[in-house]
Structure formats: C-alpha cells, structure tokens
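Protocol step 4 of 6: structure prediction from sequence.
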Amino acid sequence: MNGGPATDRLPSMLVSLTLPPADPRLACDQARWLPAEASTRRYARLVGGRAAAGAPAGDGDQAGDSDQASVVLMVFADGTPAAEVRRVERATALLAAGGVPVPLTLETDATAGWILQEDLGDVTLADVPSAPSTVRRHYDEALEIIAVIAALRVDTSPEPPLSAARLARELELFAEHALPPMGPVRARELGDDLGRLIARCAGAPRALCHRDYHARNLLVHADRVRVVDHQDALVGPACYDHVSLAYDPYVELPDVVRDAIAVHAVDSTPPETIAAVAVQRLAKAVGTYALHRGPWSRYIVPAARQARRLAARHDLALPTLDDALAELIAGSAGAPDHPASGDGVRP
C-alpha cells in the first residue's frame, strides 16, 4: 500500500495536514499517505527521523526497501474535538491492557489531531498466502482474538451500544443509499421485513464487539494477527464479529468455511439469530458501499448474495428484502472489477 508523493495533500475528508509534516515531533526522512479507506481518519507512513525514533525494535520500513524504522501517523479530520482524539487513545490503551493485539501508541497530540503509532505493515489477512494451513492458522488466531474482545468489560466509546434502534437505523441507511425509491405499499412491506430482522437480532446475547472485524482490519505482522480500526468497539450481539469475519466480502472463502466461522464458539445462540445478525451486517455493508461507490461498488454483489443465501437457508421470511437484494444484484452484476466467486482467499 504505497501512497502518493511526499508533498501530496490528502484530497478528502478535509484533512489539511501536508507531508512531510511541519511539526518537529513528526520530522522524518520519508512520508507517504496510505490509501484512503471509508473512514473519517487518514493514515500516513513516516520513515526515519525524529518521528520513528520510538518505533519498536526491528520495525523497519514496512512497505519499502529502507532498513530505517517507520511509524504510522493517524490523522483526524479537521475540526475533530480533542476529546475524540483522547477517546481513541484511551480505547486503544484499554483494549491493549485487555490483551487485544492493537498497535502500540507512541505519541499523541489531541489538539493537533493526530496519534503516532506502531507500524504493522500492509499485509492484511486478505493478502496471506493461500496455503490452507496458513489461512487456517491465521483465521483460528483471529477467532481467538474475538473471544478476548468479547470477554472485556470496558467502556471504549460514548456512543450508544449496538441496540435494536441503532441496528434499525443502519438498515434505514441501507435502504436510502442502496435501493431505488419504492411505492408506499412496497416500502411498508420492506419496513416489515426489516422490523422482523431486527427483532431476531435483538434476541442475541450481548458482548463487546470490534464492530468492523474483517480481513482488511486484521494485519499479519511478524506472522501474528494484529487488529486495527478498533477504536469504535461497542457492546452488541455477541456473534457480530464472528459474522463480520465469516461473511467478509473482501475475501473469497467456500460457504461451508464461512458458516463454520460464523458459529464458532457461539454455542448458545440459535442459528437463525446468527443468520439474522449476519444479514443485518451485510445489508449495512451494502449501504456503505453504495454510499461511497467508486472501488467499493465491487463488493455490493458478493455481500448481497451472501445476505440472500443466509436468509433463505435459515428461513428468515424476508420476501421483500430478498426481492430488493435480487434487483440490486441484477443491476450491479455488470459493473467492472466485480470479484468472481470461487474457493480462493484473495480479493
């Protein structure tokens, strides 16, 4: 994941910081933006100099040819309150203290809106070699981390938990961004389907969730799985991170493997409840992809297909949602760069 030239200004999210940073604490020999994700935060890799002086021993430039130490700079959007930067720092510290393998925080300036952290490189779980034994080992480790997160009793965010109301709001945004306008009768029928879906989700046991636990947020560093984009962890359905990992549109896995991941160590949750949480999560993801479009559009079809498969397999009785997803798939199937289905593990 190589960014643009060292003098580039990041062209989105109203981040006015330029590279190389003027702050002497961030002085470095090289600086480059990392590719932007669907987030209000942006990241840059800083190599050498004062900025990387506190990097853990052995952490050379994680994506270049240099042996110099490197770090990653998390930059918050202009206008982000200092309290939010401190909250992210605190959430990282709480998760680390609880045994979650998050990046080490090296320095923070809440007023300036940045956090300097350990560089874990660019190799995600989606990028690991496709040898079955390697993939299985890393996924087993990822599942163990979910259990560590779920066992924590920490307050990482002032945001309300993933309650039924919040899950319902996410589905409203899915309908708004991903589906065409509907007549009043069909809109009411879709609303009824989404209401039944949320009612099933509400029956799931609760635990702390990462909330965006997929292959792109799991980095493989020194042959171990490490977790990023963790700062918005909230209490929600205990199976939420399992289904996020299982039905991740960024990787290709056989459905039998996906289904096994989804039910791993969630013994007390009925299969139809797990499926309902998965369908809600996938619909939310489809809404996000539809909102951002561009390269994200390619993931609409695989996410929608999984949602339809799970709803049908577990007889969730969501006919209008199923029809809407089928139409969405038909309308998106000809889009370029759509990943083909298969048994591989690379996106």
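Step 5 (inspection) to follow. DSSP finds nine helices and nine strands in the chain.
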